[in-house]
Amino acid sequence: MKKIIVQKFGGTSVADIEKIKNVARTVIKEKDNGNDVVVVVSAMGHTTDHLVKMAKEINPNPSAREMDMLLSTGECVSIALLTMAIQAAGYKAVSFNAIQIGILTENIHSKARIIDIKTDKLRKNLDNGNIIVVAGFQGVTEDGEITTLGRGGSDTSAVALAAALNAQRCDIYTDVEGVYTTDPRIVPKASRLDVISYEEMLELAHAGANVLHPRSVETAKQYAVPLRVRSSFNIDNEGTLILGVEKMEINKPVAGVASDLSQVRVVVCDIPDTPGEAATLFGSLADENISVDMIIQSYARKAYNTNDIAFTINKEDLPRTMSILDSIKTKLSAGDVKVDDDIAKISIIGAGMIDRPGIASTMFETLAKNNINIRMISTSEIKISCLINKEDAQKALKALHSVFNLEAEESADVKGTLPDED
Amino acid sequence: MKKIIVQKFGGTSVADIEKIKNVARTVIKEKDNGNDVVVVVSAMGHTTDHLVKMAKEINPNPSAREMDMLLSTGECVSIALLTMAIQAAGYKAVSFNAIQIGILTENIHSKARIIDIKTDKLRKNLDNGNIIVVAGFQGVTEDGEITTLGRGGSDTSAVALAAALNAQRCDIYTDVEGVYTTDPRIVPKASRLDVISYEEMLELAHAGANVLHPRSVETAKQYAVPLRVRSSFNIDNEGTLILGVEKMEINKPVAGVASDLSQVRVVVCDIPDTPGEAATLFGSLADENISVDMIIQSYARKAYNTNDIAFTINKEDLPRTMSILDSIKTKLSAGDVKVDDDIAKISIIGAGMIDRPGIASTMFETLAKNNINIRMISTSEIKISCLINKEDAQKALKALHSVFNLEAEESADVKGTLPDED
Predict the structure, then answer these.
(1) What one-character DSSP code corresponds to residue A311?
(2) What is the C-alpha to C-alpha distance for residues B4 and B34, in angstroms, rounded to an integer?
C-alpha cells in the first residue's frame, strides 16, 4: 500500500487563481513522489469576512446554524477550484465536502468537535488513483446538520483525516516558514525550530502562538500523527516537524516564548466562603462551552467569610460570560463583577524545563529587572505563564527570548505572519 | 392540515441585502395568511457568472462534476442569508441544501433530472412552525454526488417540491409581471395573460419565451401543480396562473407568439437512402442528451440514392454535435455537414387552434405578405413553428402578434425581462 500524505492549505494559500495553481503544483509534486495525497483547503482569502459582513447586515445576531450553512460554502468553492487546477495539469482528482465524506461532529454549531471520519469513500478514490481534495473547517452531524469547527478548524480537519487514514504525515502549509521561538513580528531574531514536541506546541498555541490551533495539535498528539508546518510559498524549506516528545532529543530547557493578548480577566468579588461556590461558577461556564484559562482564588477575608475569584477567558466569550454571571449572581450571593481587558499573558514553554530547576525563578527575575509587575501565575509541567499589563508584553517577550538563549544568528525573513482564516 | 405554498425567487430577486429583506417580507406575508411556506431560492445576482469566470481561468474545460460542486455553493449562500432575514423579523425558519433534504437526481452532472424528493424532514420542520428555505438548482445522487439541474433549474426544484408536498400552489416570483402574449421588449403592446394552460406554456417556453424553463412546466403539468408567475417587486399583481387546459375557458385561438434565436440548423448531406440511417444519426445524438427540435428529410435524389437531413439544435450543443457527426460520418457514408446559425424560429401557440381551421394558413400568409421566407415548418396540436432568417424575426413577431389580435390597449410597463439566472 502507498503512503498517504495529508496536506492542508489555508485561506492565504488559495487567495486567488494564481495561488490556487501554485497549490496544485505543490500537491502534484507530492503525488509524483509516489504518495497518495489528500488535500484539505480553507476558504479563499477574505471570503469568510465577506460572508460574515453580509450576514451581519441582514441580522445582527444571525443564528449559529445558518452561519454554519453560510460559511461552509467558502471551502466548497476552494475544493472545486483546486480540483479543476489539478485536473488541468492532467492528474486525476476529486473534491468532497464534509457531508459527502461523513466528517461526523458533535451537534454544536460554530465550534463542533470531530467525532469520527468515514474512510471508505476516501480509500476507494485513492485506490482509483485520485488526488482527493477535502473541504476543511466543516462537518456534519448524524442528523445531517452542517457544522463548522471554529477557529483553526481546517488544521483540525487535516489532522483528523491524517489520523483516520493512518497517514504518514500531515503537512500544514501556511504563510510562515514554520514554528518560531517567538513571534518574529515582535522579536526579529526569533529562530525557526526544526523540531518541537506536541506538548510544547500545544502550550505554545494555548499561549498565543497563532501558527496552529491547539485542537489540531491535540488531535495529532492523540493519534501520533507527525505534523509539519511549512511555507506554501517556499516548499523547499521543510519547516518545523512536530512529534511526540519521546522521539526528540532535548537540548534547551525553553523552546519558545509566547504572548497572548486575546484574554480578559474577570473578578467575581465577595463570594461566600462555603463549599461548592467555585464549582457552581465554573460549572455554569463549562456548560456553555466557555474555556477558563488561569484561575486565582484570593485568601478568604476571615472578617466577612468571602473570597474573590479571578479568572481569565477569551475576549469573545465575555458577553456570554457576563450574562451567565448575571444569572447565577443571586445564587452565589456574590458581590461586584470586575472586568480587566488591559492584560497580556506571557509564557515560556519547554519540555526541557522538567528536569531543570531555576527556570521559573529566572523568568520572574527577568520580569522584575524590567519593572514588569506579575498579576497572576499559572504553571504546567512544561510551561510557566504570567499575567502582566498589556503595555509590557513586547518588552517581556524580548527580554525572555534573550535570557533563554533563543536568538537566531540572523533576523528571520518574515513574509507574513497573520494566521490563516478558515 | 395547513395548506402549503411553495415560493421561488430567482437570482435577481435576491441580488443584494435589501432585496433579500424584501423577499423575507413576501415570504412572511404568505405565512401570515395562515399557510405553511416552503421557499426555493437561486444564487444571488451574478454569483454564478463570477464562479464560472474563476473556473474558466483555472481550467478552460472544467469537469462537470467540479462545476456542480462549485456552482451549488451559490444557492447555499442565498438560503442562509434569506433564513437569517426571516429570523430577524421574529419568524422561525430553517435552511436546507439538496443533500440535506434528499432531492434525488439522476447521476448526470450539469443537467440532472429530479427522480424523487424526500419529504419527512420538510414535513417535520413545517409541523414545528418553521418557514423552510431550500436551495434551488441542485440535487444529489444516490451515491451522494452533487448535481445541478441546468438552466431554469430552480423553477424545477420549486415545482418538484410543490408536487412532492402536494402543495396548494407554486408561485414563481421573478422580475416580470407574468406571462405575456409575446416578448414585450420587441412588441410593446404585448399583453399579460391572466391564465394559460400548461400545454400552451410549454410550447411558449420551447418556442423561446424565457419566463419559465420547459422542464418546470412539464413537472407542474405531470403533477397538476397550479403555477403562478408573478413579480417580486409588485406582489399585489397576481401575475399569470398556469393550469390544466381542462380548467380553462378558451376564447382566443392563439394565446401567444414567440421567437427563438438560440437554435442552429445542421444539414447532413448525401446520406445513403437505406433504412436505419436516420435512426443511427438521431440515436447517436440522443445518447449524448442532445435535443433535436425540427427535422426535415429532403426527398431522395433518385440519381444518387441519397437524402439530405436537416435538423435544428440548441447553439450550445453544436460542438458536441459536430464531434458526434464526425465520429459517425464514416458509418453513415454521409457527405458534407453544413451549419447555419443565421436563423430564427417563430411560433404561434394556442390551445384554441385545435378546433379552428385556418390558423396555419393565416400564419403563412402573414409571413408571405411581409416578404419573409419560410425555411422549415413544424407543428404540434397547439403550436405552429416556422424557421426563418434571423433578420426577419422581429418583423414576423410584430406582424403575427397583430394579426391574431393579441395587442393590449396600452403598452406593457416592462421593468425587466431578462430571465433569472440559476
Answers:
(1) E
(2) 9
CB atoms within 10 A of CB A251: 7
What chain B holds in terms of domains, given with CATH numbers, is 4-246 (3.40.1160.10), 253-405 (3.30.2130.10)
Q: Is the CB of residue B48 less than 8 Å from the CB of residue B422? A: yes
Please provide the average confidence, as pLDDT, over all residues in chain B: 90
Alpha helices in B102-258 (DSSP H): 120-127, 153-164, 198-206, 214-223
pLDDT digits (tens, 9 = 90+) for B320-345: 999 999 988 888 888 889 999 999 99
Q: Give dist(CA B294, CA B303) in Å, integer.
A: 27
User: Which span out of B136-145, B278-287, B328-337, B370-379 was modeled with the highest average pLDDT?
Assistant: B136-145
Contact flag A83-B69 (C-beta cutoff 8 Å): yes
Rounded Cα distance between B336 and B40, Å, is: 47
Q: By C-alpha distance, which of A357, A351, A325 is closest to A339?
A: A325
What is the pLDDT of chain A when averaged over all its residues?
90
* pLDDT tens per residue, range B180-220: 999 888 898 999 999 999 999 988 887 777 788 888 999 99
How much is the average pLDDT of A47-73? 96
For the segment A132-151, the average pLDDT, to the nearest whole number, is 95
Nearest to A84 among B58, B74, B76 (CB): B58
Question: Under 8 Å CB-to-CB from B127, ≥6 apart: which residues?
Answer: none
Half-sphere exposure of A422 (CA within 13 A, CB side): 25
CB neighbourhood size of A246 (10 A) = 7
Pick the closest to residue A111 from A156, A80, A78, A142 (CA basis): A156
Choice among A24-38, B333-347, B404-418 with the minimum mean pLDDT: B404-418
Give the largest CA-CA distance in chain B.
79
Q: CA-CA-CA-CA torsion for A29, A34, A38, A39, nearest 10 degrees? A: -10
Determine the 3-state secondary structure of B200 from DSSP. helix
Q: Which amino acid is at A273?
A: D
- List of chain B residues whose C-beta atoms are within 8 Å of the C-beta of residue A60: 88
Say which amino acid occupies B421. Answer: E
Supply B245's cell numbers: 387546459
Helices assigned H by DSSP within B16-148: 17-32, 47-58, 64-88, 98-101, 120-127
pLDDT at B410: 65
Confidence of residue A335 (pLDDT cuts 50, 70, 90): confident
Report the C-alpha gap between B137 and B74 in whole angstroms. 10
Q: Can you give the pLDDT at residue B21?
A: 97
Contact A256, A199 (CB under 8 A): no
Partner-chain contact B84 A17, CB within 8 Å: no
Hey, what amino acid is at B177?
A: E
Contacting B with CB below 8 Å, chain A residues are 17, 20-21, 51, 54-55, 57-60, 62-63, 65-67, 69-70, 72-74, 76-77, 79-81, 83-85, 87-88, 94-95, 97, 99-100, 121, 144-146
- The three-state DSSP-derived secondary structure of B250-306 is CCCCCCEEEEECCEEEEEEEEEECCCCHHHHHHHHHHHCCCCEEEEEECCCECCCCE
Give pLDDT tens digits for A348-401.
999 888 778 789 899 999 999 999 999 888 888 889 999 999 999 999 999 999
A chain contacts of residue B130, beta-carbon cutoff 8 Å: none
Specify the range with the lowest mean pLDDT, choosing from A70-84, A252-266, B283-297, B334-348. Answer: B283-297
Q: How far apart are CA A135 and CA B238, in angstroms?
A: 43
The helix (H) or strand (E) run that includes residue A4 is strand A4-9
Of A162, A132, A286, A154, give the one whose Cα is nearest residue A225.
Answer: A162
